[in-house]
Amino acid sequence: MQPSIDLRLRAMIKAMKESIAPAIDPSNQTALEQAKVVAGSLDLIRQQIDYVHWFEAVDVLAHAALIEALTEVDANSVSATIQADAADAKTLPARWQCSLATLRDANNALRESIAGLTADFAACEDPDIRSRVAGIIIRHEEDQLRRERAFVAPTGFDVFPESLLPLEKVLEIPGQFSIKAERHS
Amino acid sequence: MIDIRNSPPADWITSIRARFPTERTVDSALTRKLEQRTCPSEDWTRERDIATGLRDLISRQTPDPFTIRGLRPLSGGASKEQYVFELDWTYHGERRTGERMVLARDPVESIVTTERTREFQLLKAVKSDIPVPPPYWEDGAGAHLGRPSIVCGFVEGVQKPPTGTSNVTGIGVQFDAEHRAALGPQFIDYLARIHTLDVQGADLSSFDIPSVGTTEDIDRQINWWARVWEEDRLEAVPLMNLAEQWLRRNRKPLDFVSLVHGDYRTGNFLFDPVSKRITTILDWELGFFGDRHFDLAWATMPLFCTPDESGAPLCSSLYALDDFLRNYERASGMPIDEERFEYYRIFAHWRAIAMTLGAGLRAADGSKTHQDVVLAWFGGISYPFLESLRQILGNVHFVSSVNGQPEEDSVEIDSMLPKT
Asked: Residue A123: which pLDDT band, with cuts at 50, 70 and 90?
């Protein structure tokens, strides 16, 4: 059995706050500020760590759903490779052998494809297609950003408290992959 | 996954420069950044190296004997290495003892990569009209200090009230009513003065100054930050592509050429805690010539708002939005074009994200700065910035916008402010 990551992080935070930060020369404001940020960052990681894999898995599914939605708008604009990548990526979260790095790489690849598609659609001649794609992206980002914001909420930067939900709750919300359904309705 | 940005080949750099034409000195700074990307971050922050370089720089600028004392790191700011020191020297025949100075030096990469010459020229151009740190010496090429640097006089003052708190880089500073009443009019007045300043005669050779009636300014600005995003992002964000396309389709010809500060907000000025007089306006490195609406949009972004005693949001912690804008109009004598203001709200958010989620995290990822841990933390602000951008993009009449048609629906600005 290994000591838990939570235990180790809590020990590091305690050392930073109780031993290291007080020993810093008070005239060295840069070091003092960084010590504070290090303690805050460790605590942020402590709060995030149980959800990182879940977070990335949900991201993969959401990105794959977005590519499917864009394919429905205009299948000719979404290459067979991108469609296959999205289909493959959807299987990753179900595999328990899947590492975090694998999920992250899949996500980054899907994000790149989506960004490229977004730019291509925005340059499209058909205003209806442009507007539909814009609507889909904005709707997708609403869910995406709800997760991203919840993930970093302890940094204290957020200013939209009405839509800032607990991390576990936003990861559970079933509406994440409903872009297609909403569009049809 | 291989990211070409980690080790950009020469032909990639050439193509990106061609894709995003911008101001000459913006191009040179960004190109240098890419060319140095694979260079290891040398440990050049040892004080004896800095002291040697500083002595070398000053000795080339002043013929009289001088002594540098007490060189030490200075806190604050995530973009440049800063050091404070006392200088015994002779200025225009007057012997000065213990004059406090600040050395600002580029890290290898930064949340904002700019030429020090631009900042130095702006400080010299505005110093008789706006309170700024007095600029003394420039090492634009880093010949003495290893990297581009400038030396300015130290200005006394505080960023926040003695009992106040804030997040990093002065975000979230709150003022009580007394401070707001004292600081607010000065904040607006200096902004109005910057925008209407006549800088003819000043050496502004590092700037490409746009012409009224053209889109030169906004084209260069979009290309500047689209290039930063393309060069630096660690991951793609579709909303950023959408916003960039919207900005390109909806830009308008410039109606008046202003000096634009580029980062005008609470956190970037100092004040005397007793008299509550603003003693200096800081951080001119993002300054440019173009549309004044940028500074207005930047200073009023929801992420730079804090609540007053009743919970109502205050822009830059000083004014409700409408008061901010009306006071600015009165102080400057310049009208605010609502459509331009809305446009620059989208631009300001998009640029902020390119900085925090793009350049800042890239610099931290490559261990390129003395403030990597702060930049990594600061990356967390990107997601509420993105949410704010998403809301604004969703609110503007997107269908007509993507068609390149003028907006028909007016936008309820107040509805975009955070509910605090």
From this structure: confident
